[in-house]
């Protein structure tokens, strides 16, 4: 089953930490250009999260959102952070989920004044429907959180608005008076989402100030931390629901591989051991699914040796970084040594070492599955 993560991005460290606290043993994932993500599972292992920090502003948000999408091929992407409320009926600590995002800085300057030429990105129907379902369910608020979730437009620019009388404030009231909140990254995220149309993207904002000149006061009163905590709790609940829907979709496809294709029928080529299958096709209808099926050796030492070889292949292909590869090989060596030197064989120690290997290679689904098969083999012999 697809074990692709859900990417969660933030702009501020306080937002990042609020999400990171909800991950079980997050592990650093380094992009070749220096961007550092952390990948871990939510409590209970319900779904994998790839967490990243993009910094302030729409430009960096767009670049790093696209980078995260390319790096992880995620099931969905969530952007979580704080924002200023533009309407008095939205209390501090409440959440705003974007139905669409305005990039309000676009325009043209003419002799008779500045004319607005904004760009607008709308949330996908499916993502919006699921976000509303999670808001109604309120399971995310079971720990006593009282924040309410509002759905509506968000205005995204390149300034921190902290005034009701400034030129920017007047401009937004005049041209974007339905916007519920204002922030600085949503337009960049929405642009990246537009380039990846099949990817569900949701922008979640906790209200930490009123964009009215009182930001310093609300920050001193810790409203930013409260808003971030509410936003992170809701985002985690949304991620779990998105992952659940993806699992349901995968099961449905597995049970009905033909699906709704206009061209019924399935061609299945299976390569075992060292064999390889090549495909040359002029036109393909429906999907192509490539998986690896290996016959697990009956001898655990042989199985571990084969896994060690495939770990080396994964390192060579770039699927595993050097540190992860070395750590995994060390655990495999320990497992193999235990099999050779203990009498009777200490299968508990072997299993523990293999479980550590599975944790290290969790990002490479085919390797993790192979380790699971070997663990089952070892446990069956104990």
Helix content: 40-55%
- Give the strand line-up of the largest sheet: 5-11-10-6-12
Contiguous low-pLDDT stretches (5 residues minimum) are 260-266
Any idea what the CATH architecture of the largest domain is? 3-Layer(aba) Sandwich
Overall average pLDDT: 85
Largest sheet: 5 strands, mixed, barrel
Spell out the helices and strands N to C. Answer: EHEEEHEEEEEHEHEHEHHHHHH
CATH superfamily of the largest domain: Nucleoside phosphorylase domain
Terminal CA distance:
28 Å
| The CATH topology of the largest domain | Rossmann fold
Rg measurement, Å: 25 Å
**How many domains?**
2
Distinct helical segment count: 11
**Which of globular, elongated, flat, extended, rod-shaped describes the shape?**
elongated
CATH class of the largest domain: Alpha Beta
SS content category? alpha/beta
Instruction: Report the β-strand fraction as a percent range.
Output: 15-25%
How is this fold's topology laid out?
Blueprint: E1 6-10, H1 13-20, E2 23-30, E3 36-42, E4 48-53, H2 58-72, E5 77-85, E6 95-103, E7 107-110, E8 113-116, E9 119-122, H3 125-137, E10 149-156, H4 167-175, E11 181-183, H5 186-194, E12 201-209, H6 215-220, H7 223-255, H8 300-317, H9 322-341, H10 347-360, H11 365-381
Parallel strand pairs: 1-4, 1-5, 5-12, 6-10, 10-11
Antiparallel strand pairs: 2-3, 3-4, 5-11, 6-9, 6-12, 7-8
Helix pairs in contact: 1-7, 2-5, 3-7, 8-9, 8-11, 9-10, 10-11
């Amino acid at each position: 089953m697809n074990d692709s993560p859900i990417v969660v991005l933030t702009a501020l460290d306080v937002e990042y930490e609020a999400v990171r606290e909800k991950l079980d043993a997050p592990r650093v994932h380094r992009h070749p250009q220096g961007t550092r993500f952390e990948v871990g599972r939510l409590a209970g292992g319900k779904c994998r999260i790839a967490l990243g920090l993009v910094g302030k502003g729409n430009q960096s948000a767009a670049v790093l959102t696209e980078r995260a999408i390319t790096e992880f091929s995620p099931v969905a992407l969530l952007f979580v952070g704080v924002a200023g409320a533009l309407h008095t009926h939205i209390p501090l600590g409440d959440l705003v989920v974007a139905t669409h995002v305005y990039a309000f800085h676009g325009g043209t300057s003419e002799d008779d004044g500045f004319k607005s030429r904004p760009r607008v990105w709308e949330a996908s129907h499916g993502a919006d429907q699921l976000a509303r379902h999670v808001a109604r369910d309120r399971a995310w608020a079971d720990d006593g959180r009282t924040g309410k979730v509002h759905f509506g437009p968000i205005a995204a620019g390149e300034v921190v608005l902290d005034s009701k009388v400034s030129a920017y404030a007047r401009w937004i009231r005049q041209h974007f008076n339905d916007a519920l909140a204002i922030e600085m990254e949503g337009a960049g995220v929405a642009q990246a989402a537009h380039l990846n149309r099949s990817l569900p993207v949701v922008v979640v904002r906790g209200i930490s100030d009123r964009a009215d000149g009182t930001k310093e006061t609300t920050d001193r009163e810790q409203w930013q931390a409260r808003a971030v905590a509410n936003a992170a709790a809701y985002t985690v609940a949304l991620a779990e629901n998105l992952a659940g829907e993806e699992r349901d979709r995968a099961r449905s496809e597995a049970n009905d591989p033909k699906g709704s294709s206009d061209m019924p029928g399935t061609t299945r080529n299976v390569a075992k051991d060292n064999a390889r299958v090549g495909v040359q096709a002029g036109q393909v209808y429906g999907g192509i699914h490539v998986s690896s099926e290996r016959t697990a050796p009956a001898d655990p030492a042989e199985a571990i040796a084969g896994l060690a070889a495939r770990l080396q292949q994964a390192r060579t292909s770039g699927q595993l970084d050097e540190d992860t590869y070395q750590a995994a090989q060390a655990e495999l060596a320990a497992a193999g040594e235990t099999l050779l030197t203990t009498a009777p064989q200490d299968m508990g120690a072997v299993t523990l070492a293999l479980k550590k290997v599975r944790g290290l290679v969790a990002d490479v689904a085919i390797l993790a599955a192979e380790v699971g098969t070997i663990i089952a083999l070892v446990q069956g012999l104990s």
